[in-house]
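dude i think i finally got it to work??
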Amino acid sequence: MKVSDSVCASLLKSVLCSRCDPFSAELYRVDSGPRKVPVLCNGTVSADSPQSQNNSTDFCSEVWNECQNVTLVNSPFASPQDGMPVNSTSKLSDTWKSKSAFCNAFGGSSDADSACFDGEPVKLNNTETPSSPSGMCLEKIGNGSYLNMVAHPDGSNRVFLSNQPGKIWLATVPEEGSGEELVIDESNPFLDLTDEVFTDTEFGMMGIAFHPKFHENGRFFTSFNCDKVKWPQCAGICACNSDVGCDPSQLSFDNGAEPCRYHSVIAEFSAKGTSVRPQEVRRIFTMGLPFTSHHGGQILFGPEDGYLYFMMGDGGGRGDPYNFSQNKKSLLGKIVRLDIDSIPSATRVSELDLWGNYSIPIDNPFSEDKELAPEIWALGFRNPWRCSFDFERPSYFLCADVGQEEFEEVDIVIKGGNYGWRVYEGPFLYNPPKSPGGNTSSSSINPIFPVMGYNHSDVNKAEGSASITGGYFYRSRTDPCMYGRYLYADLYGAGIWAGTETPKNSGNFTSSKLDFSCAKDSPIPCSDKAGSSGFSLGFIFSFGQDNRNDIFILTSSGLYRVVRPSRCNYTCSTENVTGLVRPDSGHPPSPSPSTSKRIRPGDSLLELLFFSFSFFFLFGFSCFL
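look at this
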């Protein structure tokens, strides 16, 4: 964009650069379609806003006063309805006849639910640093080894659990401290897809998700891998194709498998009560995989926009040799966002070259970056392993991404964000060993670096390997000293971390490694760790969250729940030891004013191993492939 007036140019530069602000989700809040500029402050900050009172300037008026009669080339304020061609010129006064009209279109204020842009980075009032928990107390409530846990949408104490081979169970979670175990009948699964699911080290049923209106429509979805040699219905377009500059005939066999023999699938099913139709209702997505690792596979629904998010790895191969993660036409190494409520006709699916039965949300990033495949929400991932939304702040969408050789990371995912792989591994520049698919220069991207993470050298020093498992913001009152912290872990059980954001809503985190113990009164005794006074969790596959907002850890040794710290003799000054009152399952604790913002993520920013050890390298050794 060319601007002749220097003062106006400076103002517009700050406006355009605000897209990189940690709070761009709030600044670019959308009521009806995407916007090219942030909400410009046009008044004072309200008393209940978490935004600093310093943000009180009428910045919208300043922009109007300095730029109204300046000729702009490709103005970001030009309305797309105007049909203006590329490199067209315009003035603000051509479209808006007054400051009032201009600021009605682009201005706004800061209140409890939003922020506005005043020409400077957003600053928040709350700078309180909460005290760190002295440790994490766990109880073991189940012996099963599961990969996914999803709270029942009805708000009850029931959860869905699934394993890698392809079974889903409906289970009942006992009250914390009751001394009871998980109620589950593993001989009677809710759904059994073991005949369709291909299971191996990095293959299997990788995710389950239930429609936000599941209680009305019974719709739910599974994400799994299949083998087209063994199952004829496993057939889709290969992710290595001419559209992304890849020729599958040039790929070598990987672990004995030809390219795109295995596929990633999202399938829809229907349930009524506790029964389910065993046949899939609809194939949402099918994509052939060029290699045999790094397929992510988690699916979840956005809590505010209702769209389905699908986490996909770079497809495998050491160092992402075909640079799929940075290829804007490839869905590998991406987070994908789909509308599964508006199903197009088969003809339309073919015309649009879709991967299945879904439609594209109109505010996906392709609406602003025409180079992007329309399904893409964010790019630059190696193997995103476990993502979650913070239910108190839906603009906070955090994903853990498995590293290659140096660093494991946690990212705040925003609309159109580029998280660097394979140009960067975490905060470090990465030099790929081979590049038949070409390179992307560091100067050509604007990477978003991790907010949390750890170096491989910090864990498993003997094995020299690491693999991150993403978790959740802790929002239960069971352990009040853990409240508001983001929990994540290493696959090998070498560490569990709590990330603390200071100040709140700043995007600035510090992580501390947690001491953890098993409660002496655990319903199921915990296994002792050989040569140690502690106990062994085994491999940490995933975290789970129930409708009470309690956090669970899904491991190779069983299912664990985070419980009151006093049960392990940990000290928490705010724990009510004598008169603990549990929140009702359907009523989460009331958030403090500084954490109560509800921003739509669409506005946007922000193995299971078999029981044999032959599968224990699910994510660890894959880091070195």
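The chain has two domains: 6-108, 136-606.
im so relieved honestly
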